[in-house]
Amino acid sequence: MIWIIGKREFIAMFQAPLAWVILAVIQFILGYMFLTNLDNFFLLQPQLMTLQNTPGVTDIVVAPLMQVAAIILLMVMPLLTMRSIAEEKRNRSLTLLVSAPLSMTEIVLGKFAGLMLFVLVLVSMLMLMPLSLYLGTTPDSGKLLSIYLGMLLLLGAFSAIGLYLSSLTENQTIAAVGSFGILLMLWIIDWLSESVTSGQSLLAYLSLLGHHESLLEGVFDSSDIAYYLLLIAAFLGLTIRQLDRERLL
Questions:
Q1: SS3 label, residue 49
Q2: Looking at residue 113, what DSSP letter applies?
Q3: Which DSSP category does 133 fall into?
Q4: DSSP string, 179-224
Q5: Are 223 and 202 in contact (CB under 8 A)?
Q6: For residues 201-234, b (16+ Cβ closer than 10 Å) or e, as one string?
Q7: Distance (Å, rounded) from C-alpha 194 to C-alpha 119?
Q8: Residues 170 and 85: beta-carbon distance below 8 Å
Q9: H-only helix segments in the chain
Q10: Nearest to 183 by CA among 215, 202, 199, 160
Q11: Residues 6 or more apart from 70 whose CB is under 8 A from it?
Q12: Would you call 167 helix, strand, or coil by DSSP?
């Protein structure tokens, strides 16, 4: 049933123009940046060849591109997640879904699976640009895999947080703004940790930015993977609890 709900959510996204517009705009913006970074790399290549332990094409072209992609998607993902549950509440279709012989866990995981299918399509399309570098250069395959995994985990966390905020209200605008606020706070909390003394390590660990940068650098750290998985599980659990509470009212 989780797969059926996820497939339904995925198809519903592409029945509206928003998903198509997001894919097109992101590909256009990041495609332009990719070509710009690639041009800069070829301009710098004669100088880099004279140095030892110089950064490769993955560090100069791909990593900065995905840093910008993460910032853009931090603003875009709330627009995708805002309708997941809020729209169902507003249309009173959530009541029908809840009355079906399904557990709340299956409903929430199904909606999350639909979002992750879209994320998989989006990230895979973005990775076509780095993969094209194999035609003329030698990218670091390990770093590319780390970047791909990092983007999936990051957007998975964005989706789980957005899904929870969507479960709190019938108003899609409030859900989108609330999701953006939480994501932005978790993104910049690392900067706050630099200005405080007590609890600095905790604030740094809670930062989405810090864990994402490690994966962009090709560092597979179990603490980074665990951070994203725990964050996703926590917000999915909060969503299930919120909907269970509303069903009992």
A1: coil
A2: H
A3: G
A4: HHHHHHHHHHHHHHHTT-STTHHHHHHH-HHHHHHHHHTT---HHH
A5: no
A6: eebbebbbbbbbbbbbebeeeeebeebbeebbee
A7: 32
A8: no
A9: 2-15, 17-48, 57, 63-81, 83-90, 93-99, 104-131, 141-167, 172-193, 200-206, 208-216, 222-248
A10: 160
A11: 151, 154, 212
A12: helix
Number of other CB atoms surrounding residue 90 within 10 Å: 14
Q: Which of 26, 2, 240, 24 is nearest to 115 (CA)?
A: 2
CB 190 within 8 A of CB 210: yes
Q: What is the amino acid identity at position 169?
A: T
User: Angle CA(115)–CA(120)–CA(125) in degrees, nearest 5?
Assistant: 130
Tens of pLDDT along 47-101? 766 666 677 788 888 889 999 999 999 999 999 888 888 887 777 776 666 666 7
Type of residue numbered 53: N
As a whole number of angstroms, the longest Cα–Cα distance in the chain is 70
Q: Provide the token pair at 102.
A: 């399904």
For 144, other C-beta atoms within 10 Å of its C-beta total 20
* DSSP code, position 55: -
Copy the structure tokens of residue 138.
Answer: 């030698």
How many residues are given for the chain? 249
Which position has the token pair 């709340």? 104
pLDDT tens digits for range 184-242: 888 888 666 555 555 556 677 778 888 888 888 888 878 889 999 999 999 999 999 98
CA dist 171 and 168 (Å) reads 9
